[in-house]
Amino acid sequence: HAKNEGGNRYLFFNDSMNKQAVKRLQIENLIRHGLKEDFFSVYYQPKMDIHSGKLLGMEALVRFITPKRGIISPATFIPVAEETGQIVEIGAVVLRKACQQVKAWIDQELFHGRVAVNLSAKQFMLPYLCEQIDDVLQQTELPSYHLELEITEGTVMQSPTMAIDTMKKLRARGIHLAMDDFGTGYSSLAYLKQFPLNTLKIDKAFIDDMDTARGRNMVDTIVTIAHNLSLTVVAEGVEEKQQLDLLKQLRCEVIQGYYYSKPLSSEDFTRFLQQQQAPNTTKVARTTATL
Ligand code: C2E
Ligand code: MG
Ligand code: MG
Ligand code: MG
Question: Global pTM?
């Protein structure tokens, strides 16, 4: 069966291998097959200016859609792909497709903002990361200032000194950097101020907790920290108007979530852009960090 899914080797299971290990191997083979068959596509979720309601940019989110099994959730395959290292190849596909698509939207004058692409720890640590990104930007003819990269605390804290170095190289190209899922990992404030970030994304878990005073205080504190570091704050997973109103009071600048839109296929996002209309979107200009 594993061979049918495109694996090149025969798999022998024995009793000592638990169900989870078998499942992991099946997913690994599915991913290998999926990469060969081009089953990985990119969906896009809008990021909106909390005050104007204008589109600022979008996050590129990988989707694994197989003819036989339908959609396989990132929650299922990303952890496996991280473990096996396949995330590096998946990440390269996502980066290329996202840059290609956004270049097309820019050429059609439907979009002038930034696309955010998630980088896994393994991808971020690649010694040739910057060269890979340069190649993709060159091939797709997307100007670097239209690209943002999202990395997590876990990724940068694995080797903070190396991370700072890589981040500076990326910023020197005009690429924006966002700290994703902020507050869920471990990162020290001492390091946070040294990371050359543009944006801090507050994890959905904190947004969900805003129905309590404690939760609201927490978000207030995170926004204050971010602003003290001159970072723009994006709230993730905003689903309700009430959350949006609270976030506005707490001086959060950008929201992303089902309240505005779920992640959309490129076809659906094109329609979303057409509805937004070009004058209603925010234009980015080249700014290179001086670090
Ligand atoms: P993330 O980068 O924090 O992405 C945000 C996740 O929250 C996405 O889940 C998005 O669909 C979901 N989301 C956004 N707004 C809402 C909302 O209002 N309600 C709810 N319930 N969910 C919302 P998704 O697409 O399933 O991705 C999950 C995670 O998988 C991502 O979290 C990211 O860590 C990872 N991931 C996704 N695409 C990529 C990729 O291309 N490369 C890498 N390395 N990781 C990726
Ligand atoms: Mg993200
Ligand atoms: Mg996130
Ligand atoms: Mg997340």
Answer: 0.91
